[in-house]
Specification:
The chain has helices at about 10-25, 30-40, 50-60, 70-75, 75-85, 90-95, 100-110, 115-125, 130-145, 150-160, 175-180, 185-195, 205-210, 220-225, 230-240, 280-290, 295-305, 310-320, 325-340, and strands spanning about 245-255, 260-275. With about 350 residues, the chain is mainly α. A hairpin with a 4-residue loop joins strand 1 and strand 2. Helix 10 (about 150-160) crosses helix 12. The longest helix is centred in the first third of the chain and has 15 residues, at about 10-25.
Length: about 350
């Protein structure tokens, strides 16, 4: 059961090894199990894919093919399922079991709010399980437990999972469960704080996916002006100016030259109208004053898209003719040339 891992600390690997040994010997693992589950719960939710295998390997959570014939006849699965009612907390390890019947049983034993972002992410991970009965059990677990999970835990998981979940291919209606929990008002408030304060990470991409629901709409103005990362301010400002949120939904072919059969794949986007409206000109003027070129580029591009023929367009563009950013200067110059400079 010993495994080499750079993800889990040696102490956790040792605990999981010992828990697995006690379960195999039909001994009570609870004194060790509590500490093991607490340490598992502290793993970063971003590492869920890798931790899934490593936890199972360390604790020996796999089908056993080397058991005596009599044990196979009387089903070791039934014996291991009985452990779930005997040993409190074991369900949080068995959701990583390599036997789908035990993953399913573990999910049906989980009640109440999830105690950590990693264990919340583990339920999401099981929504994409290869086995349909496990996905069904995970969906029932999510419906039962997600509403009772603290907003801080949900939001912390969301910033790690929102972008990654686009690669999960097995779920269909299960995605609506994710939208429902990430669309909670209290979760949106926590997410807005995380997006505003985060100095590193792909927060702009995560924000796009978070805007699938309208819960973040009231916070976009604050994010457009106060978020630490310029890319977050740019995404929020663009959505406000356009009055629409958009996020990647897959890929689509775009013809370059049909006569020559030339085409290429591009990112496709889904969109929805925002539930809030603000003065577009004021938003653009604010963006022009931003210290980041990325945000100023969004603002001047919006002049071209929405205000090119207005009398204010020239005045706004004139403030950018000496901008340090070449991309901003070029767009400002386009506006001025359109107005006869």
């Amino acid at each position: 059961m010993i495994t080499d891992s750079t993800l889990m600390p040696p102490e956790l690997i040792r605990l999981l090894n010992e828990v697995g040994n006690k379960l195999e010997g039909d001994d009570n693992p609870e004194p060790l199990l509590r500490n093991a589950v607490n340490m598992v719960a502290s793993i970063d939710p971003a590492d869920i894919a890798r931790a899934d295998r490593e936890i199972a390997d360390a604790a020996g959570l796999y089908r056993r093919y080397d058991m005596p014939l009599i044990s196979k006849i009387y089903s070791p699965v039934r014996r291991e399922i009985s452990f779930l009612s005997r040993f409190s907390g074991l369900e949080y390890l068995y959701i990583f079991h390599r036997d789908g019947r035990l993953r399913e049983a573990a999910l049906r034993n989980i009640q109440g709010g999830l105690p950590s972002p990693f264990l919340f992410a583990a339920i999401l991970w099981r929504l994409n399980d290869w086995a349909e009965p496990v996905r069904r059990a995970a969906a029932e677990c999510a419906i039962r437990c997600f509403p009772a999970t603290a907003a801080t835990i949900v939001a912390r998981t969301a910033v790690e999972i929102l972008v990654r979940q686009k690669t999960w291919r097995r779920w269909r209606q299960e995605r609506a469960i994710l939208d429902d929990v990430f669309g909670r008002a209290d979760v949106a408030a926590e997410l807005a704080v995380l997006f505003a304060r985060a100095a590193t990470g792909p927060q702009a991409s995560t924000l796009r996916y978070a805007m699938r629901t309208a819960a973040l709409d009231p916070y976009l103005v604050a994010l457009a002006s106060d978020a630490v990362q310029p890319s977050v301010r740019a995404v929020a400002l663009e959505a406000l100016i356009n009055g629409k949120a958009e996020w990647p939904s897959g890929t689509a072919w775009r013809w370059i030259d049909k006569s020559m059969g030339l085409r290429r794949r591009e990112t496709a986007f889904d969109r929805r109208d925002l539930t809030v409206t603000y003065c577009r000109e004021s938003l653009i003027a604010r963006g022009i004053r931003d210290k980041s070129a990325a945000v100023r580029r969004v603002a001047v591009s919006s002049i071209i898209r929405h205000m090119l023929d207005t009398s204010d367009a020239r005045a706004l563009a004139e403030t950018l003719v000496s901008d340090p950013s070449k991309a901003v200067r070029e767009r400002a110059d386009f506006v001025l040339r359109h107005h006869g400079r």
